[in-house]
Write a structure and sequence with these properties.
By secondary structure, the chain is of the alpha+beta class. It has two domains: about 260 residues, L-amino peptidase D-ALA esterase/amidase; about 120 residues, Ubiquitin-like (UB roll) (Roll), CATH 3.10.20.340. Helix content is about 35%, strand content about 25%.
Length: about 400
């Protein structure tokens, strides 16, 4: 376990199987707990159909005296009416009673199948066992990351450390996600922890910035989930209180890096995917224009299937840029694929399509670079290809 990310000071975690999932080897409950009251902020799904835990947690942040997060996987507790709200609040109360705080100081997330009620009897037995297992070890953190997983094939964790005033500030995060991934916010769960001191106002600004350039820049198939949640907890247990803009920026950069790392891990674990695709769009008037184009390319099924088949069919990429609503002309665009120029100022280039196709078959990291001449704004986006295996997995999800 020595190669796993450690926890920031002041936090303990746990992950275990409580019976929501049939397979006892698959963990389905996770706890992230601060030993002392901490700052908590969150960013949540923009889907109007959202899970009960999203509704409950959204009302409880930003907070200055939070104590933790309880997460179950295998059941989204979404589209479950008042019973779902009651169950989500009941989960937080069960945790709060055992760690000695008010229920409002505990946040809750659920992920999994929509439209099924939570099995209270399983959680009622599992949550106390999870509290008993809370620890600040790398293994406990890894188990918590596993407890969040649904169709993920590996636990997603990340760490950055920053030296400030002779002390070390640690930022660690765990995330889940492999499908139903679309920006605004990306379909996933993440808990990011730091032992720096951050007030709720600063923490909220930092988290929104980090999410905008990471989880809001990934897409698997364009489906925004009911459960998207990213929570940032700041314990202050390192004793570091940023006293300058430079120190605050160092912490912000570490949080940005952890979120980007976790976001990219989600795409690398995308269901059925064979290629990891980085999309750079530059030369626009406004960042939103660049983001619109990158998103259209990332979610274009014809683009994604072309990459899956190692087909350098560049017309699908430039046409996606053309239909996304940004004012541009063909001659404004130039395109490279894995460093090979294939379209320049609105005109096809003479390139070896067979050789590029072979590269796409063997190089599983793909880079789409679209340059325009309209300004200086840019966006980087990450996505994956769309394969028959993705269709198979999602056609059999509940049956």
């Amino acid at each position: 376990m020595s190669d796993l990310p450690p926890l920031p000071a002041g936090f303990r975690t746990a992950g275990l199987h409580c019976g929501i999932k049939d397979d006892p080897q698959k963990l389905d409950l996770a706890l992230f707990v601060s030993d002392e009251p901490c700052t908590a902020v969150g960013v949540f799904t923009q889907n109007r159909v959202c899970g009960a835990p999203v509704k409950v947690s959204r009302e409880r942040v930003p907070a200055a005296a939070a104590r933790g997060v309880v997460i179950n996987s295998g059941n989204a507790n979404a589209c479950t009416g008042q019973r779902g709200i009651d169950d989500a609040k009941w989960m937080t109360a069960l945790v709060a009673d055992r760690i000695g705080c008010d229920a409002e100081n505990v946040l809750v997330c659920s992920t999994g199948v929509i439209g099924r009620f939570l099995p209270r009897e399983k959680l009622e037995a599992g949550i106390p066992r999870g509290i008993e297992q809370l620890a600040g070890t790398q293994e406990a953190f890894h188990n918590a990351a596993r407890g969040m997983m649904t169709t993920d094939t590996f636990a997603k964790q990340s760490l950055r450390e920053v030296a400030i005033g002779g002390k070390t500030v640690r930022v660690s995060g765990a995330a889940k996600g492999a499908a139903m991934i679309a920006p605004n916010m990306a379909t996933m769960l993440a808990v990011v922890m730091t032992d720096a001191t951050l007030d709720p106002i600063a923490a909220k600004r930092i988290l929104r910035h980090a999410v905008n350039d990471s989880f809001n820049c990934i897409s698997v198939e364009g489906h925004t989930s009911t459960s998207d949640t990213v929570i940032l907890l700041a314990s202050g247990a390192s004793g570091v209180v940023p006293s300058s803009q430079q120190e605050l920026l160092a912490i912000e950069t570490a949080i940005d890096d952890v979120c980007e790392d976790l976001a990219k891990q989600i795409i690398r674990d995308a269901e059925g995917a064979g290629h990891f695709i980085t999309i750079d769009v530059r030369g626009l008037r406004e960042p939103d224009e660049a983001r619109k184009i990158a998103k259209a390319i990332a979610e274009g099924p014809l683009v994604k299937t072309a990459i899956a088949g190692a087909d350098p069919n560049w017309g699908r990429i430039v046409s996606a840029a053309g239909y996304c609503g940004v004012d541009l002309r063909e001659e404004d665009m130039s395109l490279s694929l894995n460093g090979v120029p294939i379209y320049a100022a609105g005109t096809p280039t003479d390139f070896d399509a067979a050789a590029l196709s072979q590269r796409l078959r063997t190089e599983k990291d793909v880079h789409i670079d679209l340059s325009l001449t309209l300004g200086d704004a840019a966006c980087r986006f990450w996505t994956c290809d769309l394969t028959a295996e993705y269709v198979r997995l999602n056609s059999e999800f509940t049956t």
